Amino acid sequence: MKRVTGIGGIFFKARDPAALAAWYRDHLGLDVGDWNGAVFPWGGEGSAPGMTIWSPFAADTAYMAPGTASFMVNFRVADLDALLPVLRAEGCDVVDRTEVSEQGKFGWVIDPEGNKVELWEPPAGQ
Asked: CB-based contacts of 75: which residues, under 8 Å, 6+ apart?
């Protein structure tokens, strides 16, 4: 079974996400959107289309809880519904909820160091 197929995003806490995003825009050339994040599209001839998201979050965000780190990696997965039960059976600390939206399906697992890891199954064609 395919598990992780790529990095979907890198999310991290910042004291001032808007100012930090502007710094990355002004000094490193990131194409930062109104939501203070940037999208890096990838894929080309012979490669599947996709993207990686870069986004600072407010320092007090609860989105990364119960993880204890100031960052969270989002991994693309091929089949979230098949993967989560396998991870549970392997003894992994899988967060007991998922989300489905127009952006795809999301689930989470806590690694042995206490980091929350986001698992993302993109919608078809992304």
From this structure: 4, 5, 6, 7, 8, 117, 118, 119, 120
